[in-house]
Amino acid sequence: MTKINVTVDGVSYHDDVEPRTLLVHYLREQVGKVGTVVGCDTSNCGACTVDLDGLSVKSCTVLAVQADGSEVTTVEGLAGTDGLDPMQQAFHDNHALQCGFCTPGMIMAARDLLRHNPHPSEEEIREGIEGNLCRCTGYQNIVRAVQAAAGAAAGAAAGAGAAS
Amino acid sequence: MTSLQDRPRTEFEDNDQHPVGHGRMLRKEDPRFIRGKGRYVDDLQLPGMLHLAILRAPMAHARLVSIDTSAAQAHPKVKLVVTGAMLAEKGLAWMPTLSNDVQAVLVTDKVRFQGQEVAFVVAEDRYSARDALELIDVEYDVLPAVVDVRTALDPSSPVIRDDLDGKTDNHCFDWETGDAAATEAVFAKAEVVVSQDMVYPRVHPAPMETCGAVADYDSIDGQLTLYCTTQAPHAHRTLYAIVAGLPEHKIRIRAGDIGGGFGNKVPIYPGYVCAIVASLLTGKPVKWVEDRSENLTSTSFARDYVMRGEIAATKDGKILAVRTNVLADHGAFNGQAAPVKYPAGFFGVFTGSYDLQAAYAKQTAVYTNKAPGGVAYACSFRITEAVYLVERLVDCLADELKMDPVALRIKNFIQPDQFPYTTKTGWIYDSGNYEATMREAMRIADYDGLRREQAEKRERGELMGIGISFFTEAVGAGPRKDMDILGLGMADGCELRVHPTGKAVVRVSCMSQGQGHETTFAQIIAEEIGIPPADIQVVNGDTDQTPFGLGTYGSRSTPVSGAAAALVARKVRDKARIIASGMLEVSVADLDWDKGSFHVKGDPTKSVTIQDIAMRAHGAGDLPEGVEGGLEAQICYNPENLTYPNGAYICVVDVDPGTAVVKVRRFVAVDDCGTRINPMIIEGQVHGGLADGVGMALMEMIAFDEDGNCLGGSLMDYLIPTALEVPDWETGATVTPSPHHPIGAKGVGESATVGSPPAVVNAVIDALTPFGVRHADMPLTPSRVWDAMQGHPHPPI
């Protein structure tokens, strides 16, 4: 067992983990953040995507011990007391989810995409979420949601208020 | 930031297509899913819960010589190790399948497919359980594997199912439909006959969430609760009762949220049974969640039909007859989920959307050393295969006759005034206006413009293809006199209860896996009884809470449970009318219903709302003579027929002449599913199904090598489309209601998966016209398209 200190969704945790424990299992089974899910065993699907110190990572491919001293944000840390994150809102408004299983990872990946490219083209959005598989939506409404969230963010930055 | 509550209500937008209730209503499911607050099976943590892992066979066919579990049992965190021999002592080593065959829960005699369940371990955590699997020592005597369905019936092939009495070959069943002699007569006289061999390769539904369960047996109450990824919770409960000998009222199945099903989560898998056994033996909750490779290698595959199709026509393009001979690979156990009297599912609708003189299909199903399954992945009980066959054949005929494939189809469509139309294989199509649907797709695509563009590109040596698919689906199984799953009639229940304050709860027997039932069933009730959808809670997936019914697959929720919902609401409304007559002191006949309220005929000011009536029904005041208190009803709906949605799909591809890479540039999908309950949700269903179709046509295959090793056992090899492989979908609709459905709605969930693969393949073949290619088998990967361009297309194994 190894001691780690990790901040998850703004709360600090001090835990013992086995060195082999995957970050996704640590988040789900020790911290209780079951919003982040597992969809494969080969790092392809991206359902486990979280933010690790500002980087988008597939948490099935990171050891919990590697997150020692880090700050992790999961989908459960996005909505504040004042409401939803614009990306969450955009997914709802654009019917960008069905079974909801890829949604947490997809939202995290899409937020990361906009962080690096606030005004992506459709092609750039599709490339930006290429690491995240979805079996329900055929992706189009996800692309629409990311476009809407980008527009909302642009609107907010211009002082034009929230999404219309 | 905005919150959901702050947003303007959108329920009343876009009523243009007469959607039931409230049009493009946003989903009631979303708020929890977008926050990571869904409740999927692996999210569950129960006090003292143990973890189960399954040891799987490393080869396809082998006699079990010995198993030594002593080292695994000695592992400090292991609580239990169970082998097939131990299950056999309890009579649980084999279980019935949904096709009345049997399937091994754990291997007792021999391994019959790679990835088959051999033993299981229960440990304190999932890592230790996996560790302990490595400590089990199994000795196998390897046998030759039966892999190729074409040679599986050769007398020299090893017999896979020697567990079955007197079994001396790998024959599973024979099936036929239509009139062989009449069809032969038409073919004998036909001016044009085109024959084509084609393979619909084995693929896998691969839902994002794999299969899993938490079994929780309470030995004090004798109560088993099974949290489980099941699309058919009630059917599962009954089967567990029969198999395990537990009383049915002491079994509770809870499906929770399911991360996609696509038919993968209809059967009962050995893992579920193992989890139940483990909980019975340990007295603790036991969780089993398979990983992706286990899902792909051992749970229900889809397709795997080798088909020889023939189509007969006149020289001017009147299609006369279709016939086919099918070899179906069912794997090692016939685990196909289909109504009992339909061993080949609804493949009988292979006559498609065309008015024929004769049709005949013959099928031989065989066992091979592969995982069981067959019916899955939005196939509507083998209609994917049926539609692929006929839509490829029509294109082959168009090629032979040098006719435009759209013109050929339009010339042969069943006409609107022919409905209800009885096909030559006995299916009674309910309604359709095929040419209108086809022309809508052509309008959206600018079909003539596309053909002009293609001609110009061909001049320049560019490979552009336009593929057509026009399909008729058959969904909503089904009439109980014909259709049952292991003796359980395919009816569905619905229960509606209106609370005193006018809010309501509707309990359905179907089980959403993302299709939006929590939203759309509220809309159906809202339309019928005038309670806003926001005030209606939809409950599904808990067998203690919901009425009996057969679950969600085969796009049957709207046809069967949707009908039940409408009718149960009408039943409640009828009672509400009687209560209203008492409140307004007029006779029942003097009341008019005006969505949400009754008023006295000729005097709209004298009215009571459904909410007023609900309070009266539960209140202290008088009710009319003979009326019980409360406002609720239940129903079990037995459909009189299936619904037959249809669609016209046009796919445009570009093929790189240098690399043979296929790019789907456009995809136009016009679907007609009758009354559209929620157009937004229908579009999402169609988008998802189209992505499935592109995946199957271009990327996906579960292949095997000659030793029976599965070559598609992970997402590294089993390729499913990302956002980059699919285009922006262009959808449209026509509305031809189902005359026999209470709200005229047909199913639609699987239409796009059924209809799109032939459109993509037809487009690729069309693009390859300069190379003289008439057919190439899926998946049309670059190497396979390249081979076709070189003149030697090869079928997949």
UniProtKB/TrEMBL annotation, chain A:
It comes from Jatrophihabitans cynanchi. The keyword Iron-sulfur applies. PROSITE patterns: 2FE2S_FER_2. Residues 2-78 form the 2Fe-2S ferredoxin-type domain. InterPro entries: 2Fe-2S-bd (IPR002888), 2Fe-2S-bd_dom_sf (IPR036884), 2Fe-2S_ferredoxin-like_sf (IPR036010), 2Fe-2S_ferredoxin-type (IPR001041), Beta-grasp_dom_sf (IPR012675), Diverse_Oxidoreductases (IPR051452). Keywords: 2Fe-2S, Iron, Iron-sulfur, Metal-binding, Oxidoreductase. It comes from the Bacteria. This is (2Fe-2S)-binding protein.
Automatic annotation (TrEMBL), chain B:
GO terms for molecular function: carbon-monoxide oxygenase activity. InterPro entries: Ald_Oxase/Xan_DH_a/b, Ald_Oxase/Xan_DH_a/b_sf, Ald_Oxase/xanthine_DH-like, AldOxase/xan_DH_MoCoBD1, AldOxase/xan_DH_MoCoBD2, AldOxase/xan_DH_Mopterin-bd_sf, CO_Mo_DH_lsu. Residues 35-144 form the Aldehyde oxidase/xanthine dehydrogenase a/b hammerhead domain. Its EC number is 1.2.5.3. Coiled coil: none annotated. Residues 1-28 are annotated as: Disordered. It holds the Pfam family MoCoBD_1. PANTHER family: ALDEHYDE OXIDASE 1-RELATED (PTHR11908:SF132), XANTHINE DEHYDROGENASE (PTHR11908). This is Aerobic carbon-monoxide dehydrogenase large subunit. It comes from Jatrophihabitans cynanchi.
